[in-house]
Structure prediction request, 321 residues.
Amino acid sequence: MSTMRAIIMEGTGGPEVLTSAEVERPAPVSAEFLVKVVAAGVNPIDAKTRSGSGASAAIQAYPSSLGNDFSGIVVSSPYEGHPIKPGDEVYGMVPFPRQGGAYAEYLTVPALSIARKPKSLSHVEAAGVPLAALTAWGMVVELGKAHEGQRVLIHAGAGGVGHFAVQFARFFGAYVIATGSARNLAWLKELGANEVVDYGEERFEEVLDDVDVVIDLVGNVHDATGTRSLRILRPGGLIVNAPTGSWDTMLEDAAAAGVRASHYKVSADGSTLAVVSRLLESGDVKVFVDQVFPLASAGEAHAALETGHTRGKIVLAVSEV
Prediction:
C-alpha cells in the first residue's frame, strides 16, 4: 500500500478542522521503524496546536497530521539484527511536528523513541501512556526528585499527566496532595494521594503550607493557580510547570517569592518509557482511559478533551490488531 487513512488539518482552528483523508504512507529512513498504529493518545498539546498555539508555529506545511503518542505493531525495523522485529508490539512517541503525527494508520518513529508495549495493557491503554507518563516522570522524578518525607502538591491530579504524577510521587514515598473536582476526590485517594483538596470548595492556599514541590499542570490560565501556589511552598521549594504558555512570568514571580521554578518539556525517551513499562507490568502504576473515539471522530475527541473534565486519558482507536 502506498496510502493510508489519516486525520489532517488544512490550517488551525476549532475541532472541525480535523478531517479524515487518504494520504501518502510514510517511508522510514535511517534508524526509524515503520509502525502500524492501533491506537493513538489525545493530549492537551494536540488541542492547543490545532487551535493555533502549542506547537503550531513549528508546522512547516499544511495539510498536517496531529498526534504524539501511539501503540502499534512493527512493520519494519531499522536493520535485520535489531532486537525489536516486525510483528512486535511497541508504544512510544513520534517527534511531531517535525514529521507526521500519530493520528494515522502508519507512522515512522526513531528507534530511541519506542519501547515494547507492556503485555498487561491493551493497545488502547498503552496509547494513553507515553506522553503523559513521561511528562509526569520528568516533573516528579527527574526535577522534583520525589522521596520519602517530601510533601508534593499536584494540581489537576485526575488528568492525563496528573494521574501518573500522583502515582509516581507516591511510589517514591512522598506525601502526596492533589487538587481535583468533587467527583474525582475518592479516585485520587485510590491512586495514592494522601490528601485531596476540592478546588470547587476550598482555596488550597488557605489549607496547605510547607510544601516542598508543586507539580503545576494548570499555570495561571485559571484563577491564578500558579501564583497562588507560590504562597504554600517552603522557602527554597520548587514549582515545576508543564502547560505551554500557561504562565509567562513564572520565573520572575518565583524568584520574588524566594522559591525555585522550572518549566518542563517532555522528551520522547524510549529508555525511560521502558522503566515506566516495568511499573505498569507490576501493577504499581496504572493508566486510566476515560473515553475512546474512532479515528474518524478525532474532532469529537478534541471537543471532549477541551471540556476540561477528562479523568485520565482520551484515546483514538485507529485500526484492528
